[in-house]
Amino acid sequence: VVAKLIKVNDRSSMTALEVTAGGKLFNVVVDTEDTGKQLLQKGDLRRRITIIPLNKIQSHVVPSKVQQATVRLVGKGNAELALSLVGYSEELKNAMEFVFGSTFVCKTTDVAKEVAFNREIRTPTVTLEGDIFQPSGLLTGGSRKGGGDLLRQLHDLAEAETKLQVHQKRFYEIEAKIKELQPLQKKFTDMKAQLELKMYDLSLFLKRAEQNEHHKLGEAVKKLEEEFEEMRSQIKEKEGCYKNCADTVSTLEKSIKDHDKNREGRLKDLEKNIKTIKARIQ
């Protein structure tokens, strides 16, 4: 339908555009009248619809000289062709001209009156609030509850769908990347498991090495203690020998001294005996 085929450039103009299009917003756009006939005959439609065949529709667009006259009358930007306020695919141009090409959207009521009733222009106008001014003098206006809500909702829906498409595209890209990385993930998992196993083996090895080192140190300490005890025993034995030698030396020294003293007494005795013997001889 037309409402889903357009993009409103300025949200403030949605009410005016909705009024401009009226029921044409729900017209169904098809490429040819044949497609339209097939849709009517075989489409299993639940309600009446109006079809716009692009190859047959005859549109009426406000002539460029009238548009220029409008700009001269009220100034640029104060009254714009409704067609210029919507975006659409180039292939839909005929349908969009048919729906939006014959009405001006005006910023104020005064501008709308001036454009619609001007003899040089005489073109239907719609205000931003949705009031309609016909060159014939017919005026339509008043309360419009939810005016422009349809286009706003469709506009929001279109934006949401666009964002959804972007996110879906990103999702598919991520999904493809995940599939691409899955073999690497398996390889990484296997390598991680191997690494953890090697780390465990290393910890056991270090533990055993530490225990072996402690054992070796214990044996070395034990051996040193035994050697120390043996050396201490030898020292005691040497000390005993030294003491015995020292006692022996002391005894010998005493004996020598005693021998020296006795020798003097013996010599005196011998001299005395010699003298006695000589006397006897004489």
From TrEMBL:
<dbReference type="GO" id="GO:0005694">
    <property type="term" value="C:chromosome"/>
</dbReference>
<feature type="coiled-coil region">
    <location>
        <begin position="207"/>
        <end position="241"/>
    </location>
</feature>
<dbReference type="InterPro" id="IPR010935">
    <property type="entry name" value="SMC_hinge"/>
</dbReference>
<protein>
    <submittedName>
        <fullName>Structural maintenance of chromosomes protein 2-2</fullName>
    </submittedName>
</protein>
<dbReference type="InterPro" id="IPR036277">
    <property type="entry name" value="SMC_hinge_sf"/>
</dbReference>
<feature type="domain" description="SMC hinge">
    <location>
        <begin position="1"/>
        <end position="116"/>
    </location>
</feature>
<dbReference type="GO" id="GO:0005524">
    <property type="term" value="F:ATP binding"/>
</dbReference>
<dbReference type="GO" id="GO:0051276">
    <property type="term" value="P:chromosome organization"/>
</dbReference>
<dbReference type="Pfam" id="PF06470">
    <property type="entry name" value="SMC_hinge"/>
</dbReference>
<keyword id="KW-0175">Coiled coil</keyword>
